[in-house]
Amino acid sequence: MITGDIQASWLRDSSHQFVPYLPLLPYDTNLQTLFRGLINLQARYIDHEPYCNAFQPPPESGLNPSTLPGGIHVAPPADSTVYQCKWEIDSLASFLRLSWGYWQVTNDAKFINTNWLNAVMRIMAVIQAQSLPTIAADGSINNQAYTYQPTGSRAVPLSLVDTDSYRRINLF
């Protein structure tokens, strides 16, 4: 499911594009097959790279991969199946929403397979890892399981910002 002008699939966007069709599922077996295919593909992506939110077309699609955005450092590093690796809880939640919606409307659990179960376990592990505070109780910094940093970006100290100008345009 390509979700824009780039031949890549965002978990959240592809899920949200399908949700309006949920009420039609009882009347169209081909649409049910399409939903199960999307759920299975997303499960495959999540199981493989659970911190990533957008993926290249799968090899079986025959589509060429898109050029990756540059200047970004991600840890753990993503492989060539990934288009963009920004961790977003709503991307993982969208997969769960799509799965639940499909089951709720069809009462068909065919999509629940090893692939899907592995993805759900990875989601739970990611949520647990991302729930770790940055600062430990003893004041030390906890190592994080995932980091995302565009290279060349840096924070600008507020002391260098003309806060009066921002106040005038209601940003503060």
Detailed description of the structure:
The protein has 5 helices and 5 strands, in the order βααβββααβα. The protein has 172 residues and is mainly α. The protein has one domain. The strands form 2 sheets. A 3-stranded antiparallel sheet has the order 1-2-4. A two-stranded antiparallel sheet has the order 3-5. The model is unreliable at 156-172 (pLDDT under 50).
User: In angstroms, what is the radius of gyration?
Assistant: 20 Å
SSE topology string:
EHHEEEHHEH
Q: What fraction strand? A: 5-15%
Report, as a whole number of angstroms, the end-to-end distance.
40 Å
Number of contiguous helices: 5
Low-pLDDT windows of residues: 156-172
Give a quick account of the main beta sheet: strands, pairing sense, barrel closure.
3 strands, antiparallel
Q: Please indicate the count of domains.
A: 1
Rough shape?
globular
Secondary structure: number of strands: 5
- Strand arrangement in the largest pleated sheet: 1-2-4
Specify the structural class: mainly alpha
Portion in helices: 40-55%
- Give average pLDDT, whole number: 85
Features:
5 strands, 5 helices, 3-stranded antiparallel sheet, about 10% strand, globular, mainly alpha, two-stranded antiparallel ribbon, about 170 residues
Secondary structure elements and their pairing?
Layout: E1 9-10, H1 11-18, H2 29-48, E2 54-55, E3 72-75, E4 82-84, H3 89-106, H4 114-130, E5 147-150, H5 163-168
Helix pairs in contact: 1-3, 2-3, 2-4
